[in-house]
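User: I'm putting together a small comparison set for a docking exercise, and I want a reference complex before I start. The sequence is below, and the ligand is flavin-adenine dinucleotide. Could you produce the 3D structure with the ligand included, as structure tokens?
Assistant: Of course. I'll restate your input first, then give the structure tokens for the complex.
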Amino acid sequence: MNLTVSPCTIAIIGGGLSGSLVAANLLQNATTPMSIKLVERHSEVGRGVAYSTQVKEHLLNVPADKMSAFPDEPDHFLNWLHENGHAGVKASSFVPRQVYGDYVQATLSEAEANAPADVRLERIVDEAIAIETKSQRVMVSLKAQCLNVQKVVLALGNFPASLPEPLASVENDNRSIRDAWADDAIADLNPEHTILLIGTGLTMVDTVVALLAKEFRGKIHTVSRHGFMPFSHKPATPIPTFIHPETAPKTARELLHLVRHEVRLAGDGEQDWRAVIDALRPVTQELWQTLPLNEQKRFLRHVKAYWELHRHRIAPEIAEMLDAAIQSSQLVYYAGRIQTCEEEENKVAVTIRERKTQANIVLQVNRIVNCTGSNCNYRKLQHPLISSLQEQRLIRPHASSVGIDTASNGALIDAEGNSSELLYTIGTPRKGNLWETTAVPEISLQAANLAQELLKSLHPKPNIVSDWFAPNQSSLLPKPVMLFRQLFDQESSTYTYLIADLKTKVAILVDPVLEQVERDLQVIQELELTLHSCLETHIHADHITGAGKLKELTNCLSIVPRYAETTCADRLIADGNTLQLGNIQIRAIATPGHTNSHMAYLVNGTHLLTGDALFIRGCGRTDFQDGDAGLLYDAVTQKLFTLPNDTLVYPAHDYQGRTVSTIGEEKRWNPRFVERSRSQFITLMNNLNLPYPKKMLSAVPANQHGGILVN
Ligand SMILES: Cc1cc2nc3c(=O)[nH]c(=O)nc-3n(C[C@H](O)[C@H](O)[C@H](O)COP(=O)(O)OP(=O)(O)OC[C@H]3O[C@@H](n4cnc5c(N)ncnc54)[C@H](O)[C@@H]3O)c2cc1C
């Protein structure tokens, strides 16, 4: 039998952060031939609107430790900074956005360099203008060529805002009115001129910073309906999430009351309101989804401006720059509406009706810059690609008027309400469904999940070539290659797994126990195996690893998950890394939650060693060693439960004599996860009140030293 597999082809339209991260995740995780076509209209990928700025004073508005490209490697960005000439950056630092663009580019290049030879990335500098679906294929028309692919990801990001009235009525070619995101927004401006910025949010802040960096000395007027000034970030002691989506109020007004009440309580306890807003972040998407549509619309009309003001804060350094400009009267804020806009010689006269006094203020300005942020009303967007999708009824604008309708896996929902199997999206277009979907923490998680979703849906069907010519098929069937033994330690109820390639006789031990080293060595000797390495799922708290002793006795390697606090590992294994043991492949799957560096291992695609992340009808605890119930829930439901149902589940422990289960069984019967939402799971795990493991005080430090007891 001759099997040939043709590569799957995925087109990603948009090479900003979202598109680049989907590509990086695909490159890291694809195990079958694949061609990824990343289409970006600008020459550089990885930057998009946010990270292509040339102004070094433009800082991220999120601290460095929250900007990792990979949700299961929270320190990825910080480590990259430290290894790439930014040693002084702290977790709480606000880094230049330009540098973040360098990071995204480097991350994509690294994924490309480490991908298997038959998983390829092609960067195409072009603009997509139309999409058509035809019998399980998608034709993507670019300006210069046409792509015929199996799947498409729309990573289109942010569209520039439309001009508010009455500016929109002023002639189109008026060179005094420009868009803040255009390259020429503040170009060829006399440094003494007067400028008016429409909008007082983060785009306005960016424009002011760029003006000051250019040594602009003229007056800067800014106007918005409320005239709110962005708040600065400030260190705030985190508080637990005080609101649960199931029991939360279902109206925008009541939600607002509840948050205000919490802010008052926080104030009484000398806490900062920022901690209250931050505590909402993990549940914001769920809260949004539990609001009925009319309440979502009410939120957009009445609460959005307040929410964005408090949620999107600026780096303290930037706040200081703005304060100084206000103090010197260079920067002036107005709360009001623009009434008229009239062109005069070399100037535009703009009349603003002040919100409070209803008085008219007339400003004579040389330049007006539209800083109203992004436009995500797909009914109003004017781009040929969006028109093409709309004409073919392949997209449906979200009923709230923000974004388009998507399924929970990111698939587009068409005008008839059907979820696509060919077209997906990520980031801003999902705003109507998720609300919180535009910042790096949300985008990085969506990118990882979407890549898994695409890979799952793309199992290539081998073309069977001339199979009936094979003389004796049974003689051609591959012989079993793997030895898989489950060994047990009664005292700690721990399973150790011995896995070996039967041809090369090379073996690996997963989670060996110190007290069982002699037993394990005896099996290895009797089966004439060579112990290559000991592999840990995590730093254990209930037993001491046998790795140190086995290393001493056999010279094997000790392999430990990346980010585990350990002093003597020979190798670290990261999410997506594959260990090749003869013909056996062991793929690491980061499953943080029981401990922060926990890994599960998928052996040859069939046997899943779940460590303490998933037990048979249970899961590991999350109340020590930086455990996090929310992360565990995400890892199990979004990673392990997305493996095929017949994947065998081999846990690190069982206390009732069970040895093996399957993913399908656990999805159906595991009482910790079945019909339990994330927040219900967190509540359950936070209230288990289990006693600490007896050996914890000696086991954890010993395991951090590879199993050597520490005095
Ligand atoms: C000024 C600014 C600052 C920000 N700062 C932060 C921050 O500090 N921290 C944070 O977490 N988030 C920040 N954000 C949020 C930001 O939305 C995300 O971090 C992220 O950049 C979004 O990436 P994206 O790829 O989805 O969108 P975009 O960055 O908008 O990228 C989309 C890309 O798609 C391309 N494209 C679109 N249509 C087509 C087409 N038809 N054909 C070809 N190419 C196409 C565009 O050229 C663009 O490069 C900021 C956003 C902005 C606008």
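Residues 1-5, 460-478 have pLDDT under 50 and may be disordered. The first strand starts at residue 2 and ends at 4.
User: Thanks, that's exactly what I needed.
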